[in-house]
Amino acid sequence: MASREASVKARRGDRPAGKGPAARSAAALDSVIHERARLGIVSALAVSDRLRFGELKHLLGLTDGNLSVHARRLEEAGYVSVLKSFEGRVPKTEFRLTAAGRLALERYLRAMEALIRALPRG
Known about the structure:
By secondary structure, the chain is an alpha+beta fold. It has seven helices and three strands. Helices cover about 60% and strands about 15% of the residues. β2 and β3 form a beta hairpin. The protein starts with a helix and ends with a helix.
């Protein structure tokens, strides 16, 4: 029965999971950036020198907690730097994309483009 299934898959052009250019491209996607909120953060910071917490929160439609958790993960990866200060008594948090973050985003985008090109056309 297994050989019949393999024969049917071969006729349809199916490939075993984990093989081929699409699978390799998908494996190359950076899991830190791939999450939607984190991809939004690095993308927004790629086109802005720096963004304040409130600006980023509003731009991406995230809650305070969500933004904090995802920004911390990006900071731990070295992709984002966090600058904390005070204006009077009001805390001010700004985010910047680091050189490593910019490089990681560029690699991520190249991997995503390769994945799209590797997908079968229907």
